[in-house]
Amino acid sequence: MALMSEEAHQEPDAGAGKPGPGARSSVRAAVGPAGGPGRAEKTAGCPATGADAADAAARAAADTAERAVADVAERAAALEEFAADVRQGLGAAVLCLPCKYLYDNRGSELFDRITREPEYYQTRTELAILERYAGDIIRRVRPRELVELGSGVGRKVRLLLDTMDDQGLLESCTLFDINASFLHESVERLREAYPTLRAAALHGDFHTDLQLLGPGGGRLVLFLAGTIGNLHPGEVSTFLRKVAELLAPGDGFLLGVDLVKDPARLEAAYDDAAGVTAAFNKNLLHRVNRELGADFDVDGFDHVATWDAENAWVDIRLRCSRSQRVRIPQLALELDFEVGDDISTEISCKFTRQSLADRLAGTGLRLGEWYTDDDELFALALLEKDGC
Ligand SMILES: C[S@@+](CC[C@H](N)C(=O)[O-])C[C@H]1O[C@@H](n2cnc3c(N)ncnc32)[C@H](O)[C@@H]1O
Question: Is residue 253 part of a domain?
Fold first, then answer.
């Protein structure tokens, strides 16, 4: 996955000795307080001469041009990766499309709407747990840096930033997401809301790009919303091991996990009456049409969400309801779908305290605290680096 950034607000030596975002040439991530000592402010005390102003304008124009070229290259690389993954997924024996592609701009907007649907208990429950325990979490970890993986609109992180502020710890926050435009907007909003915060955007894939965050120290990493459940059980240990490498002794990893519960409640959460989750799922086919020139008859697919007790996951699919021949010119591919044919688009694994603890074995992480709501619908697990 190509990585992209916002304009650098960073002091030239900020983060020296700690290769965080921006320290690697492949990452052009934003770091720095809005209204803080960015480039413009650094020269604010010196009366600008005409030559200074012309130099600054030329530098800004060169930066903008360089960014535009890099953006075009990144978009081309992202499209190539999307095409390769769609080819692989639709060429497999069990048809599937990777769930990370659900989150283009339309998908991210739809996900935000899902979180407000009455059936989707996860977001309001997780927020309530955070509200109740943010003080305890921040007191235990005493972070100077928050990192949210898969940050989306970046709303929940604010509860923790407010608490860090109350405890005199507010310093920096990095949002990490696969959707670049949502990510950059979220970071801008954080900068406006917290003028003294060094807020950074890291665009990447949490399966492959976590090392870009650099080593920890005073860090609390967040992975909320039960997004861990979208990883196949076979991928979880590797992912957790990579997160453990981001932590120094005393750092924390706050993991939001959705808990095993009544199947009817789980299935309803992934098939709301207003049809928002169905639209979110079908948007993936619209994306293939839009970006790869395919001609899926999207209304000829149904959204299906089923609890799979054996695997402890909700299985989310698109099921063909109208037979069709689909052409994907950019992949030189033609596919025939019959009624009942499925494309798997997402799984959402559910946990118990014990099943999560079992998953931690050998990952370098151990369960510290377990925070849950009164009905035990959802939990926040505060994980620590093992052996510290
Ligand atoms: C379920 S949403 C959670 C959003 C937000 N954290 C919340 O609590 O509401 C998952 C988020 O992870 C992002 N995402 C999905 N797959 C990703 C990947 N492989 N790498 C980075 N981000 C990813 C999506 O863009 C989306 O913002």
Answer: yes
Answer whether 190's CB lies under 8 Å from 173's CB.
yes
pLDDT of residue 26: 28
Give this prediction's pTM. 0.86
Same domain, yes or no: 304 and 208: no
Pocket of ligand 1 (CB under 6 A): 100, 103, 108, 111, 115, 123, 150-152, 156, 177-179, 205-207, 224-225, 227
Residue 225 near residue 379, CB atoms below 8 Å: no
Tell me, yes or no, whether 247 and 357 share the same domain. Answer: yes
Q: Do 203 and 311 fall within a single domain? A: no
Structural domain containing residue 219: 107-261+353-385
How far, in Å, is the centroid of ligand 1 from the Cα of 102?
10
Task: Tell me the three state secondary structure of residue 383.
Answer: strand
Percentage of the chain modeled with pLDDT above 90: 79
The answer to whether residues 117 and 251 belong to one domain is yes
Select from 146, 148, 149 the least CA-distant residue to 100. Answer: 149
pLDDT above 60: residue 317:
yes
Ligand 1 midpoint to CA 341 (Å): 28
- Work out the average pLDDT over 270-287: 98
